[in-house]
Amino acid sequence: MRLTQATRVAWSISLAFLVCFFGTVPCAAGEENIMNGNTLDPAIFTQDFYPVLTWDPQHGWKQDTKEHKHGLASIQACNFTLGGFVLPRDLPECERLGLKVLMAPDVPDLGIWMREWKQLSDEEIDARVKAYVESAGDSPAVAGFFLTDEPGASAFSALGKAVAAVKKYAPGKLAYINLFPGYATIGAPDQSQLETKSFTEYLERYVAEVNPQFISYDDYQVQYSNDLVMKNRVTVYFRDLLEVRRVAMKHGLPFWNIVSSNQIRPFTTIPSPANLRFQAYTTLAAGYSGLTWYTYYSRGYGYAPIAPDGEKNVTWNYLRAVNHEVKALGPLMNRLTSTGVYFTKPAFVPKGPTLPGHFIESVECDVPLMVGEFVHDDGTPYAMVVNLSLARSARVTPMHGGEAVKGVCFSAQDGRPLPIDYDHGLWLIAGQGVLIRPGT
To answer: Is-above-0.70 flag for pTM?
Structure first.
C-alpha cells in the first residue's frame, strides 16, 4: 500500500471526524504538551520521553532507613525512564544518573499520609503541598509529586485542591494520582471502593472534580487470568483498558496503565517474557502514553524483579528486555494519535470492537490479535499489531484493499524503520507487538 495524496487527505478527514466525535483527541507529550489546560515542563515531557515508571516508594511505605543493594542505578539499568517514589535525600543521586523521578513526602508513614487529604482544611492542603514542593528544591530530576493511590470518589474534592496547589507551587510538574481499576467493588457507599455506581461514573467524577493532568489506573487481570486461561478476567482487563482510553480521549487527557511485574497473589501466574510483553504491547496499542510496573521491589510479592533477599530475580532480566522495547518504540508512539482499537474475529473480547479498521482491514493469522490504529500529524496512518497468544509465535499479514500492507515496520531494538519482509514472514513472538506504516 503506497501512501498517495488522496490517502493523506482521507486520513486528515478521518482525524477531523474523530476530533468532532470525541470532542478532542489526546495530545502527544511534546514541546506543546497541553493537558486539559495544564502545561507540563517541556524540558522533561518531550516527545522523546516515554514514561516507564517503577511503582514503588523507594524507601517503603514507612520510610525504611536501609538502602537497597540494587537502588536507583539498577532502576535505570532496567530501562525505566521514570523512578518512583523518591525522597529529597535521593535527588543528588538521581541527578548524577540523569534519572527523572516522582517525589514522595518525607513522612513516617506514607500510607497514612496519602489517605488524609479529605480530612484537611483548604488551608492545610495548601500548606502541606507548599512544604512538600519546597522539600524538592530546584532539582531538575523531579518530574512530579506523588499525592495518593486508589482514592474513592469521596476524596476527589480535596484532591482537586491538592492538584491545584501542585500546579501553583510547582508549575510544569506532574501531580501524580493513581486510580482503582473497574473491578474494584462497585455498589453501596459502605461497600464500594470506587464509591460510585459504575467505573465510568468514577472516571468522569475524577476528571470533573480533580481537574487532573492525566489519568492513571492499575489492572492486574493478566496475572489473575492465569495467563489468559480465565477468559472472564481477560475481558475485564480489556474492558478497563478501553474505557479509560475512551474517557481520557473524550476529555483530551493522556492516560497511563499500571500492570504487574510480580506474582500479584500466591495463586496467580508468575511474570514471564510473554505476559510482560502482552501487558506492555496492549498498553501501547491502545494509545496509552505511559507504562508503569507494579512492583520493582518484592515487598511481599513473589517473583518481583528484586527478590526478597535484595538480589536481582530472573524477572529483572525479562523486564529489562521489555522496557528496552518500550523505550525504543515509545518516542515514535508519542508522535501519533490513537484513532481506534480492534480485535480479530472471532472476538478475543466478547462485544469488543473487531476489524475492519480504517487502515488495517484484516490480518491473516491463526492466533488472536489486537490492532491499534494511529495517525501521524502529517496524516500518515500507523498500526500496532499485537500477538495475543502467550503460548506461541505467529506469522501475521496485515491487509488493506485485499492486499498485504506494503511499507515498514519499526525495530523494537532501536526504533529504526525496516522494510516489511513477507517473503520470510512478519513474525511476532508470544505477547509481542509490531508498529507498521505504509510507504517507504
So the answer is: yes
